[in-house]
Design a protein that fits this description.
Layout (H helix, E strand, L loop, with lengths): L1 H31 L7 H8 L3 H8 L2 H21 L6 H18 L1 H6 L9 H24 L9 H20 L5 H17 L4 H17 L11
Helix pairs in contact: 1-2, 1-3, 1-4, 2-3, 4-7, 5-7, 5-9, 7-8, 8-9, 9-10
Amino acid sequence: MTDEIRLTSRRERGKDARRSRIVEAAYALLREVGADDLSVKMIADRADLSPATVYNLFGAKGAVLAKVYARDFEVFIAKVEGAGSPSALDAIFDSIRITMDHYRSDPPFYRGMSIRNPRAEPELVIAVQGPRQAFWRDLLARAVCEGDLAPGVRTDMVSLAMLQMSGGVFGYWCADLISLDEMEQQTLYSFALLLMGLARPAGRARLQARVAAIQAAAAPLCPTATAG
């Protein structure tokens, strides 16, 4: 019996080691080819394993990528929790800053995470978006409890709007249409405007201050016309 347990334990450790190699291979490949062009064969070759091993341990490419995205999200959550934000409303905007710091630390990796064709990977999209929407929804609910947002706010709908806003700006950055600084500014601005319409007086005043500061720091979109 003891020998069987030891054998099972060794097998499980071996599986865990192979899973780690597969996930690390996917991490590296995202920087090179991106999520859409990544294949199980590429992951297997980089991990020095057979494609059958990847399928046996994960089932499909999307499951490997979901693990990569989940691990990255865990690091993000830890940094948000360690930021010491004084309120949930502040935590929302601190989260944007932390996100942008992640992107600045490894642009090829985060651009590689972009899913250009969601219809090809619907389960992966759900796996990625679900925890992120829940993250925003929890912060919104806390902001309601803290009195910064009005009671009755539909946190499910607002969190989805926030997810879609940030995803749209992320897509612009991935397409090289805006810089990371512009991405950060636009995300902060859109979130502040959205939440301002849902805020109670104290929260609204703080959001208005954020909007004013962003507007003051932003470069004009077009040159000011000179008098003729």
